[in-house]
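Hey,
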Amino acid sequence: MSWGVDWRASTSLVGTVVKYLSLTMVVPLVVAIIYGEDIAVFVVSIAAAAVLGLALEQFDPEPDVGPREALVLVSFAWLAAAVVGTIPYLIAGNGIPFVMAPSAPASTLANPVNALFESTSGFTTTGATVLGEISTDRHSHAVMMWRQLTQWLGGMGIIVLMIAILPELAVNGAQLMQSEAPGPELQKLTPKIVETARALWLIYFGFTVLYVVVMYGLHFVGLAENMTLYNAISHGFSTMPTGGFSPEADSIAAFKPIVQWVAIPFMVAAGVNFALFWHVVRGEFRSLLEDTEFRAYAGATAVLIAVLSALLFRGAAPPLELGGTTAGATENALRQAAFQIASLLNSTGFATSDFAQWGDHTKIFLLFTMFIGGSAGSTGGGVKVVRWLVVFKAVRRELFTTANPNTVRPVRLAGQVVDEDAIRGIMGFTLLYLVLFGISAVFLGLDSARVGYDLTVLESVSASLAALGNIGPGFGRLGPFGSYLDLPGTSKLLMVFLMWIGRLEIVPVLALFVGRLDRS
């Protein structure tokens, strides 16, 4: 043992996660059968992942999950998922010597670093891509469906899913879910953690089904000809987890405005704490309206949309300078603003316009938006609204007590006093986030200059934030219609690390590296 961790038990539990992940590859296998594509890619991938999972399980047939093992499991299960996710990409790109030829020869994903980048980006719901050419003709419907599915699996959390289907993990299920859940505190919806996990996944699944039905309904009534069932499912797998991958090269911009309008409320909903939807389903509507974080999130969304609409309507983005009617220009500005804010605020990363080409003031405004993040308990990335609320209230408290040293003023949220340890934890997390973001931005700039790619300051900063906040697109050549393909391998590996540590919200991963298995 090391650090008091039973590594055999932890390895066995990671194997269980890998084993069940192999079963999810049945979905793209079915897609391959439907479209008459090469099924060998996923037959071999399923077999390889299953064998690996079963082999790892043998390290401890009856693992005991303690608090320390739970933290190790969460961190390494996500790494294992990212590695397993590369298998279909590598097989499709390289084939198997003497067994099968590559189905996508010369594919970008034939490169192991690129495959790991794409897989990690999917599972962490980042949506950053190294694909320079996105199409089902180039990479097959099945491979592209796997790319979409990885986001959906990672959206509500791999470990939350495992707890929902494996009751034996419930002994320390709260510790497991807390380590994986986005936000400073896990909200239990039911007395049993297994039931909480199932409730969250049921709501998540319900939203996804509703999205697919509505989107395909637009196609069915002739309002969105290219929103086929395949595209509806693919974007359902991407929207609710706030992923951002699309099988279309032009992302959501490939579809008519009505599709974009319909996607906006779903993206906004994905950035809301899913525990609140559970209360709404139970008829407790006041829980949603009285939630401080929800009101702040909704208010921020409305204000940001209004400001960006004004910037765009005044011609801050050349692509929006339409020669049509005032009503048409207003609709376009509102739609583009609402879509980009909904997408970047909660880290979805879809785009309806190449905002990398917009004016500098507008890009800085969008960069600010990317810093905020979604709500705790949502599928969104970033720092999270509730943390910013506590940070601002704590700073205001310090300024007040400096001017009034004999006054005691606790920080309150939703009428409740916030514990001082919780405040220190949130302030520490925010500081870690900003430091890691800054150091990574500098490294990306220097590393790109080393190979002559020369990222601009805005490109380096946006790439660091896009990875750490699980957002996806950056600016410049790394924008929504660009890719990260030309970054040096070392920069891609750094971004893999940032996506991983960002999805787990930094502390659990750093605790492993410093040998302290605890969480603030």
